Fold this protein.
Amino acid sequence: GMSRNLYSGDYYRIQGRAVLPIRWMSWESILLGKFTTASDVWAFGVTLWETFTLCREQPYSQLSDEQVIENTGEFFRDQGRQVG
């Protein structure tokens, strides 16, 4: 429908997986497909940020989708070790 076209830019397809709203997802959800209470808290935090900024911009608006994923990898790595 019309809403699908309106918000299609908010989703990104990662290597053949489902289309995902990566800008709202935690690193473990994006990179590992792992959904936990912690990833829910992350998404809620992004929602609060949107509310407080009156939804004036998309999360990480200065980054491309590929840069968001690359940046997410930094949460995953800690001096060459996996975090989490």
